[in-house]
Amino acid sequence: MSIALYTKGWDQALWLSHFQTLLPNHTITAMEAVETFEDIRYAMVWKPEPGALARFPNLEVIFSLGAGVDFLLNDPSLPNVPVVRVVDPDLTNRMSEYVVLHCLLHHRRTLSYLRYQQAGLWMDREDPAAKDIRLGILGLGVLGQDAAYKLSIMGYDVMGWSRSQKDLQNMRCFSGEAGLDAMLSQTDILVSLLPHTQETHAMLNLDLFKKLPRDGALGGPVLINAGRGKVQVERDIMKALDDGLLIGASLDVFEDEPLHDSSPLWSHPNVILTPHNAAASSAKAITDYVVRQLSLYEAGQAMDSVVNRNAGY
User: Domains in the chain and their CATH numbers?
Assistant: First the structure.
């Protein structure tokens, strides 16, 4: 079977080598080098140009090389074949590492202490205990549930919101519009791990930030977004920071990537920026996962993490 591979912005030779080692009986070709489009049965891709996959008339499965699939679902010419996304323990663990790290950075006021260090100031500030900080997670899929579990071990008061109601052990779960408002009203650190769908587009906006309390243990709310960039409105994040609706933010994803040089987010003293690497899983871990799914398909068995196109993930 023939496979087309495309990894925008990544070391494609590395990925090609991994896949060729694991799939010696398949022909794997960089998408831009494919000459006979009819031969391609599988596509393993990260952010191909819209219309690129429509060139393959005999395509059977599309494998996203990451957890996100909005770049595929936003392609109006996407072939009507199964789309599989990555849900792998390595990726999940890395995302939870990021979320726990940034909750702690804001909780323990690390940005302030770095500024004191640079100014040569020996200055102490009283920090609240984790149990006094209310943590709300938007999105209770595999990533959200794992992060919630690990944060609860740290002692945080963890809540979660999802589109449909979840019943998870040792945490309060909210759903729907009324549930969202109820959770926001008692959230000190808001963590977004939402996918980008029609329903979540521009959801992290000024109206939402106004629903966060400003009398919590941190003295104001913090935003952490490690989900999808188009879920947030960056001008509203800046205004919320300037107006005191937010006291800090950690952003790993952006409306347009890379973040534009002129964005004021780069220089805001209470913002931490990372280059969409919160869950940058290794090429080996992802290729192992994708090959397992391909093996299931070729054995006539159900694949894991097939995308529901109506839900958007």
Answer: 2-88+281-298 (3.40.50.720), 89-273 (3.40.50.720)
